[in-house]
Amino acid sequence: MKICIFSGTFNPIHNAHMKMAEYILEKYRFDKIIFIPAYKPPHKDYMPDMCRHRYNMVKLAIQNNPKFEISDIEFKHEGKSYSYLTVSALRQKYNINGKIHFIIGTDAFEKIETWYETDKLKKLVDFIVFIRENNKVNLENLKDKGYNFEFTGMPFVDISSTKIRENISNGKSIKNLVPEEVEDYIYKNGLYRNIKMA
User: Fold this and answer.
1) CA atoms within 13 A on the CB side of 49
2) Chain segment 23-60, per-residue pLDDT in tens
3) C-alpha–C-alpha distance, residues 141 and 138, integer Å
4) Is the model's pTM score more than 0.85?
5) Are 46 and 8 in contact (CB under 8 A)?
6) First vs last C-alpha separation in the chain
7) Could you give the domains of the chain?
8) d(C-alpha 155, C-alpha 139), whole Å
9) What single string gives the DSSP state of each residue in the chain?
């Protein structure tokens, strides 16, 4: 099985996330793209009450694509969401051909050397790096250190979870920024009215 994982806070999942996943699925012909909402992101503050909401929103967003799957692996662990532990567990669960592919943005990839067990992680995955800005950053030094990655050709999509939370807090529309099911869920549950929610 050829799989790719898309791990993140997804606070909330939005249309740029969906476009990334659809682009990667078509370009690389993966059998599955597994979305993994972080339970306790190691580099971010989090609110326990939001964890289940973030999971539910991802589940709603991907429900119509049979090749998209959501994993609660980091929720079951309930500790900090370290990618190395997650990838190791997925390798035990699935019959995987070769390495797992790992979608990541340039902002996170620039900090990859600070991640938990990064030297072990880089032996298990091939990174697919999305440009978070209009210009490519220089990450070639990471190749010299054993990180296998390639940049995607997808144009930058200017949507961010931060902007969506700010819009809601300020009473502005989020139409066309998130899937309709996610928009309905946010308003039904009164999420992000307080900008400090994470």
Assistant:
1) 6
2) 999 999 999 999 999 887 665 666 778 889 999 999 99
3) 8
4) yes
5) no
6) 34
7) 3-158 (3.40.50.620)
8) 18
9) --EEEEEE--TT--HHHHHHHHHHHHHH--SEEEEEE-SS-TTS---HHHHHHHHHHHHHHHTT-TTEEE--HHHHH-S---HHHHHHHHHHHS---SPEEEEEEHHHHTTGGGSTTHHHHTTTEEEEEEPSSSS----HHHHHTT--EEE--PPP----HHHHHHHHHTT---TTTS-HHHHHHHHHTTTTSSTT--
User: In this structure, what token pair is assigned to residue 107?
Assistant: 């902002």
Per-residue pLDDT tens over the stretch 76-115: 776 677 899 999 999 988 888 789 999 998 888 999 999 9
32 token code pair: 């599955």
Look up residue 29 and give its two tokens: 């012909």
Task: Strand 100-105: give its sheet, edge to edge.
Answer: 68-70, 32-37, 3-8, 100-105, 125-130, 149-151
CA distance 5 to 62: 14
Tell how strand 100-105 and strand 125-130 pair up.
parallel
